[in-house]
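PROTEIN FOLDING TASK:
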Amino acid sequence: MAYPTVSAPYGLKPINLIGGQVFAGATRQLVIANTSGTGYGTSIFYGDVVKIASTGTIQVDTGTSTATPVGVFMGCQYISAVTGQLTFSQYYPASLAVKSGSVIYAFVSDDPDQLFKVVNVAGTTADDTTSGLLPAYLGRTVIGSNAALVQNAGSTTTGDSKVAIYTAAGASTTDSLPIRIIDVVPDTANSSGNFCEFIVKWNAPYMVTTPSSGTATTVVTGGHQYLNPTGV
């Protein structure tokens, strides 16, 4: 059977773990804020990047050239203020009306060793259908390089994310970029032998020294939140 046509990004899709570790598709339940029956004010879509805020609840990580992810959103559960019933959803709608005092749980793929399949797009401009959303084909030379996130808004119809990655044809070694490309998806090869889907992982935290002269202060930032020694 032919590989499905890749016409647009779909977020980050967990596929396995690095190093041949056993992968069972496990997720962690993390809390989305609920203030007096009104949930967190930003929609979160299946495949979006999320982070833990200082409140201990999760929110969308909107980072592009930098990010502090805890993982990828895989759906949620909540008690509806309308029906009073436990409800499961592909995505979390902004400012959701839920039972006051109840807990909104997000299912998050939070393993720091998680590998994802993701679409590489032609530009960093979100929701630009002439460049930002169109898949872009690159050769194997980008394996081992770093990439930025492209934060397209998800679909309220499907509940799916439209987050993608972007990297120029030349390999990027910028240490603040949140994504490391580790392989191609061979089935997406075009007639030129290039690919539009890639296998990626979270990049490592990095150090920033300020100022560059005089008495300097060095801090560790970025990377997966579980791997950053300074925490959230």
Observations:
- The chain has two domains: 13-109, 114-146+163-204.
